[in-house]
Amino acid sequence: MTVKSLLQFSLVLCLMVAGSVQAQYSSETFRSPALKPSIIESEVLIQNHKTLLEALKMAELDKILKSPGPITIFAPSDTAFQKLSGRALEEWLSPKNKQELLKMLTYHMVVGELTASRILQAMASGKGSAVFKTIQGNEILATLEGTDILLTDCSGNSAKIKTEETNLSNGVVHFIDSVISPGSSD
Asked: Could you tell me the pTM of the whole model?
């Protein structure tokens, strides 16, 4: 084998390895934080959480969810909001109840990047449960139900984390199947 053919063979081998590595990792893996969408720009949030997005905009929290963060949001789907009585949802979304809406929404948020893995680690350290303080000020209890992470609010209502989105510039979104509540005002 000549030096020229050895170099050609090496070049072809390098290109094959590079193609293999590129196929294993999407461009998302190497995306810089500045190019990643913010929480409020999450495609899944935009597609399946229209009620939540409307509420976040009414409460002017959409601006915070564009900021550097990190913030974790437990995001009820449109289906989760449909489980509420129409009256409760109308009251929350009424401009005169902006403070109540703000309390409810910030109860779905925790400061920091709280991935499912970190929730599970905290639960392991807490002998099966973990408590997280929300931005609103009250706590959420996390436990396991089978293989699902279950969040329980101050009133005993619960929501399952269905999926999460972690490839965001400013935090994590956990998609949940129910709306949780901070409880009654003190």
From this structure: 0.76
- Which tokens sit at 41? 């720009």
C-alpha to C-alpha distance for 172 and 73, rounded to whole angstroms: 6
What is each CA distance from 179 to 22, 63, 84, 107, in whole angstroms? Answer: 40, 22, 8, 10
- Pair 38, 65: CB distance under 8 Å: yes
Residue 159 to residue 152: CA distance in whole angstroms: 7
172 bridge partner residues:
72
CATH number 2.30.180.10 given to 32-176:
yes
Task: Count CB-CB contacts under 10 A for residue 1.
Answer: 7
Which DSSP helix (H) or strand (E) runs through 24? helix 3-24
Interval 122-169: pLDDT, tens: 999 988 999 999 999 999 999 999 999 999 999 899 999 998 888 888
